[in-house]
Write a structure and sequence with these properties.
- The structure is a single chain.
- By secondary structure, the chain is mostly helical.
- The protein is about 60% helix and about 0% strand.
- The protein is built from 6 helices and no strands.
- The protein has helices at about 1-20, 25-35, 35-40, 50-60, 65-85, 90-100.
- Helix 1 packs parallel to helix 4 (about 50-60), helix 4 crosses helix 6 (about 90-100) and helix 5 crosses helix 6.
- The longest helix has 19 residues, at about 1-20.
- The N and C termini lie far apart (about 35 Å).
- The model is unreliable at about 5-20 (pLDDT under 50).
Length: about 120
């Protein structure tokens, strides 16, 4: 039931962000990644494709249909890394565990504006 509510929420967010064409909002990113909190905080359990955490990463990737959105998502991840240090490694490994290429490297010194998406 929780996964179903999560997916409905994600679909609503996706339709909202697509309709207004706005950049990805970091509050939305944080909210979606909240299902990964255990992994981000404790390093376990590992997320896997199809898990709620990986579904969140996949949905974030689906929201980045433009260069501006991808840069915004990159900036949000960089903010999460800064705020979650020393757990930044867990955040950086999420796309790899989930098999979702975001188009940028998640590490503290990433310059999101330099990426050509």
């Amino acid at each position: 039931m929780g996964t179903r509510r999560f997916m409905i929420r994600v679909l609503m967010l996706l339709s909202w962000s697509t309709s207004i064409g706005a950049a990805v909002d970091c509050t939305t990113v944080t909210d979606l990644l909240s299902v990964c909190a255990s992994f981000i905080s404790y390093g376990s359990p590992d997320p896997y494709p199809g898990s709620p955490c990986c579904e969140a990463v996949t949905n974030l990737n689906l929201m980045t249909h433009s260069t501006d959105n991808r840069r915004s998502l990159c900036g949000c991840f960089m903010g999460l890394i800064t705020a979650s240090n020393p757990n930044s490694t867990a955040i950086a490994t999420l796309p790899g565990f989930c098999g979702v290429p975001l188009g940028f490297t998640i590490k503290p010194d990433t310059d999101c504006d330099s990426y050509i998406f």
